[in-house]
Each structure stands twice: as C-alpha cells, then as structure tokens.
Amino acid sequence: MNEQTRRLITAVHHSQRQVVVVTAGAGAQAVADLLAVGGASRTLLEAIIPYSAAAFADFVGYTPEKYVSPDTAVCLAGCALSRARVLAPAAAVLGLACTATITTDYPKRGEHHAYIAAWQPQNLMIQDLHLNKGARSREEEERLISNLILNCLAQTAPLPERLLLDMSPADNLTISETDFAPYARQVTDREIAYFGISANGRILTTPPAAILSGAFNPLHQGHIQLAQAAAHFLGTPVAFECTAVNADKPPLSPETLLNRMAQFAGRWPIFAGAAPTFLEKARLYPGIPFVVGYDTAVRILQPRFYQDNPDSLRAALREIQSLGNTFLVAGRLGEDGLFHDMHDLAIPAQFHNIFQSLPFRLDVSSTALRAKDLT
C-alpha cells in the first residue's frame, strides 16, 4: 500500500463515521485496504460480498433485472445503510455499495462498468464509471474501482484527501447527488406537506396507493409484516409514512426524521408527512386506505382527540368518508393481555363502511423494543 492510500484511510478511520460496505463484481480490494490500516473497527461495521445470485437476492430481498445498474447499486447501498442503522443506531452511518462488471477469464460482450452508491441519511451520491474495455487487466480495473470507493468514503466524510485515479480519456466518470435534508427541513417546518424517498433513492412527490403511518422508533418486523399483509389484502403496494409533526408531541428534528427514514433505505418507500391527524392525512392523501393497528383505531374514535367534542369527531369522520379514505384495522394485543380487533371498536353506525378488518397478528411493539434496549 502506498503512503497516499494509507494517509487517506487513516483520515477515514478518524472521521467518526461508521460504514457497512457491500461489493459485488469488484471493489473488495477497498475492504482489504481499510482493514490493513489500524483503526478499521472505528469505521467498518460490516463488509458484505454477495457474489452469487442467491446471496445477492437474499441481501436486497429480490432478484434485480440487471445486476450492474445504478438502481441496483443504490438499493445495495440503501440496504447497507439500513443495516448500519441497526448495528450502530446512535452513530453517524453510511451505506456504501459497488456493483461492477470487469475483465474475467472469458470475453464479455458488454461494457465494463462500475456503479458506486453512497447513501447517508441526509443524502445519496451515485458514481458511474465507464471503463475503456480491454485497456487494463482485471487487477488494474479492480485497483481503479477500489480507489474510487476509497475516494467516495473520503468525499462523503467529508475529507480533503483523494487518491489519484489512473483514468484515461477513454474512461468516463459521472457523479450525481440527491440531498434529502432540505425536504426534511421543509416538512418539519410545515413548508411542504409531505415528501417520500423510494427504495432506489428517488424523491417522491405524488401520493402512494396506501399508507401505514407511525413513528417507527424503531422499525420492526411487526411494521413490515403488517404492511405486507395489508398489501396482499388490498392488492396494492403499501408505503410507510413517518409522522414528522405529531398531534401531542414536539415535531421531529430534520436529523431525527432522516435517521428514522434511513431504516427503510433500499427496501421500501418511506414518506414523511406534516399532518398530525388522520383528518389532515386524508386531506393530503384523498381516497387511499390507511393501515392502522387496533390501538390507533381506538384513538381515531375517541372524542378527546377532537377537543373532547363528539360532534367534532363525527364531523371529522364524515369528511374522511367524503374524501374516500378508509381504515384497514389490524388486531393488537392490549394492555389488558387480551387480543382486540376491529369488532371491539365502538364505531358509529354511519361510519362502519370506512372501517375494515385485516386478519393479522404479531405481538411486537416499538415501545417494548425501546424498553428492552434500555435494560
């Protein structure tokens, strides 16, 4: 390892940022370089090399149409970021991924390409490297891509150090970036009503087909399986929505909001909304189903959330009904130790048509998980 590389990696190890790295096709040398310099445990949470098709599908949760593409690299980086959030929930984290096709022991018909994606809670960067096919050995292509990965780590830290890249005029490197932070600030300041981030990192500004709202502190299997059950029941995708402005709590900070949204990176679309009540959500997302648990449905039907006025409750339900929204209610284990579902709700007769029961049960809660983490 040359001294320039050692200096850059040393700076990365001192940058107070922890990373999950995923490489497929090329880039493993960057992992070896990180491990070769003392202090790697401060940077590297985990390195994953899903080389076979089965390993690749297991990591991202699906079989991609193209293994080497910007969308695939972004989904890998998103899954790496969500994994980093699990491994180091209180740290500054990054998901970094590379998917590439380079010289091998048989002739390749396509171009030699590498896509590197770096996904942090606040932004996403994609680097697209088009290599001059046939100009380098496999080792030389691997070295160039690994150096680009190391530069990417430095750039996102951010650090001033960079490695010189052995690029020729026939090679081409393009970089694109998406900044999520301004959207998060505008939602928490209520300057915009909502925005979303797709599984492949794109900003979403149109309403989803159905929503499961929550604080997601933390996201757990109950949320995921509930969304999957609801999607199967409805025959339409269900997006998650993190409530940025709560009816009875202070608004989330933009940093907290983005950290919670990072739990969904690479796997599921996640929206952030400034509507604290379901009436306000219905105005934002008219005509769509809201997937809720029994405990949330109880609160929807309690006058105390409508200035203790039953008339205000009925007026809100009438407006939700007129907007075409419905509630898909999943059962939940109550504090009384009994399982409750929609049939235990006191629903006024004229509003029965906007409530529907979802056969689902998984006894897990964010509150219980947080309490477990504190013990």
Task: Describe this structure as you would to a colleague.
Helix content is 36%, strand content 22%. It is of the alpha/beta class and 375 residues long. It folds into two domains: 3-179, Maf protein (Alpha-Beta Complex); 181-374, HUPs (Rossmann fold). α1 packs parallel to α6 and α2 crosses α6 (138-156). The protein starts with a helix and ends with a helix. 41% of the residues are buried.
Offer a concise description of the structure.
The protein has helices spanning 3-13, 28-36, 40-43, 53-60, 70-87, 138-156, 181-188, 221-234, 254-261, 278-284, 294-300, 310-323, 366-374, and strands at residues 18-24, 44-48, 93-101, 112-120, 123-131, 172-179, 194-197, 203-204, 211-214, 239-243, 270-273, 289-293, 326-330, 332-333, 339-340, 355-358.
- The topology string of helices and strands comes to HEHHEHHEEEHEHEEEHEHEHEHHEEEEH
CATH class group of the largest domain: Alpha Beta
Task: Count up the helices.
Answer: 13
Question: How many strands?
Answer: 16
Tell me which oligomeric state these chains represent: single chain
Strand percentage? 15-25%
Provide the number of structural domains. Answer: 2
In what order do the strands lie side by side in the largest sheet?
A: 8-7-11-10-9-12-13-16
Average pLDDT rating = 93
Structural class: alpha/beta
Helical fraction equals 25-40%
CATH topology of the largest domain: Rossmann fold
CATH level-4 homologous superfamily of the largest domain: HUPs
From the spread of the alpha carbons, the general shape counts as elongated
CA-CA gap between termini: 44 Å
Name of the CATH architecture of the largest domain: 3-Layer(aba) Sandwich
